[in-house]
Amino acid sequence: MFLFPLLSILFTLTPLIHAQNNTIPLHNNQIGSYNLSLNLHQTFYFQSNQAASLLAKRSSAVFLTITTCTQPQSSTKEPVPALQLFVSSTNPLPSASNHDPISYVQQPGYLAWNTTDITRVWITVAAPASGSLQGQWSYELGFSTSALMHPLYPPNQLATLDDTDTTHALFLSTPYLTSTNFSLTPLLTTSVPAELNASYCAAVLHNVASTANVTLANRSSLQPSYAQQQIMVGNLSLGQSYAVYFAQSQPNNVRALQLPFQIQTKSDPRCRLIYQLPFCNNVAYSVLANASLDIWNVTLSYDTNANTLYEPFASAISQFNCHSTQYSLVRNCSDCERDYKRWLCSVAIPRCTDPPADSSEVATYPYPAGTARSSWIQTTYAPNGYTEFLPCIDLCYQVVQSCPPFLQFNCPTDDLAALQYGYWLPGHSPTCNRLDLDPSLLVISRASPRWIVSPLSYLAFVSAWLLCHFL
Ligand SMILES: *[C@@H]1O[C@H](CO)[C@@H](O)[C@H](O)[C@H]1NC(C)=O
Ligand SMILES: *[C@@H]1O[C@H](CO)[C@@H](O)[C@H](O)[C@H]1NC(C)=O
Ligand SMILES: *[C@@H]1O[C@H](CO)[C@@H](O)[C@H](O)[C@H]1NC(C)=O
Ligand SMILES: *[C@@H]1O[C@H](CO)[C@@H](O)[C@H](O)[C@H]1NC(C)=O
Ligand SMILES: *[C@@H]1O[C@H](CO)[C@@H](O)[C@H](O)[C@H]1NC(C)=O
Ligand SMILES: *[C@@H]1O[C@H](CO)[C@@H](O)[C@H](O)[C@H]1NC(C)=O
Ligand SMILES: *[C@@H]1O[C@H](CO)[C@@H](O)[C@H](O)[C@H]1NC(C)=O
Ligand SMILES: *[C@@H]1O[C@H](CO)[C@@H](O)[C@H](O)[C@H]1NC(C)=O
Ligand SMILES: *[C@@H]1O[C@H](CO)[C@@H](O)[C@H](O)[C@H]1NC(C)=O
Ligand SMILES: *[C@@H]1O[C@H](CO)[C@@H](O)[C@H](O)[C@H]1NC(C)=O
Ligand SMILES: *[C@@H]1O[C@H](CO)[C@@H](O)[C@H](O)[C@H]1NC(C)=O
């Protein structure tokens, strides 16, 4: 009874589809590449469950993404207009004047549309006409019945920046389950057109990074069965800014993209990026070192020095009966050892940076020529003036809170604190060096930090402080 009308609808439909002889059929979990010249269009067609019996449920969900890879040249300063999308479930040639009203997500160079319960749909991608444009568009169209083929992630969701030096950038992935295949490709770009800012294929086309060196990170304690990758990119240019994307291949041919954040390589060639230190395993940033030295030798020299400085503390705490003496309701000796080591690594391995453009927002200290934070750095690397990116004062506060009072560990206050440490300003790029300390534990900055005080008073203080704590 009901089958007959359905069948006749189907048979009258079929010639209609093929009447448009350049209509491209869409298949599940497919990404196709297409070109489109000015003022032309391309139509695609999808019919759900074509092979199944008519008694089966025929409708399905539809996920469509369009990412623009290249665009025409414009002879004016006007932005190049975006490709247009028209959809219809009844008209085989959707157009600006004849299409279904839909709402879709639009970002520069990116369109995403999804809907549920579709039995068939025609999709037109149209190139605008404009007298000031020359050339063609190229784009990828992703189609699936289960998920977006080009999902976007906000900056920092898949990977964050550790630090840069003049030719390298080091990134840290977010923790992932070790049971999954996790693979990120960094894409460092300098010239993605603003109109294509959110496009996977445009980022791939403009990538200038060479192959990254990916290693497993051994930083702060991870949950069991989770891992983190550190991704080292080399061959970059000095003092250059890059828009950094991360691409991730996921099952079913899905191409995920983390939207870009900006990084800047350093200008001072004596700031050199080190990571994977055997003892100070949470250090992953630039340190002061002569440009010609082997970087692994530099890494070991800092790490060995920090480990040596840790020994007096280790022997002091080992003489304290941690197991029978409860000195705090919330902290024990494990916390003390962890926090003391983190603090020690931050002061024994000072972070090196370029002089900041705005020193009121970044906790830096400019060491004049012939001076350094410690005499070890002074004699080993004989710096000729450099800028330190100061540790967050919280690294010191954590030791005071975690360690037994007999250690008599104190943090400087007032002006001395502002000389030696930085404060955290939420919503800014990092304003002090926190290592792996959880940002939620950081003390928020005072209204107007005064990072810079007279270098001489600072040095006098640092020497006295080093004597107290290390000798
Ligand atoms: C179909 O394509 C042929 C050549 O490939 C062309 O001659 C014809 O006009 C097209 N028909 C339609 C309806 O577009
Ligand atoms: C798009 O155009 C470019 C340049 O003309 C060509 O190299 C490429 O093969 C074309 N791609 C497709 C899918 O037609
Ligand atoms: C599907 O579309 C709706 C409405 O536009 C949107 O809110 C939702 O996030 C989309 N889902 C996906 C997976 O993109
Ligand atoms: C990871 O990838 C390999 C090879 O591509 C595959 O054999 C394996 O099943 C994948 N594992 C998971 C958990 O996806
Ligand atoms: C590109 O996108 C990022 C993040 O989505 C944004 O911060 C940046 O301003 C955009 N750049 C341009 C040129 O549109
Ligand atoms: C760095 O760039 C040079 C020249 O462009 C190239 O020969 C070298 O292979 C690159 N190094 C890496 C690690 O990609
Ligand atoms: C990658 O980094 C590790 C650790 O720093 C190093 O041992 C290894 O030689 C590097 N691999 C390449 C290909 O550069
Ligand atoms: C990770 O670092 C800690 C602290 O330095 C060290 O004890 C541990 O052996 C390291 N683990 C690996 C796998 O390197
Ligand atoms: C690293 O240091 C060791 C000992 O200080 C030295 O023998 C070696 O030549 C150095 N390696 C490089 C590549 O400079
Ligand atoms: C300190 O406390 C943690 C749990 O809060 C525990 O796992 C650890 O073993 C304790 N360490 C010592 C030395 O008691
Ligand atoms: C680093 O460079 C300085 C100045 O050029 C020099 O005095 C010092 O000996 C060098 N240090 C090393 C370890 O090469």
Automatic annotation (TrEMBL):
InterPro entries according to UniProt: Frizzled_dom_sf, MID1/Yam8
Top-level lineage group: Eukaryota
Signal peptide as annotated in the record: 1-19
GO molecular function, one term: calcium channel activity
Single Gene Ontology BP annotation: calcium ion import across plasma membrane
Keywords attached to this entry: Signal
Record's keyword annotation contains Transmembrane helix: no
Pfam family for this entry, one: Mid1
The protein's name in its UniProt record: FZ domain-containing protein
UniProt organism field: Hesseltinella vesiculosa
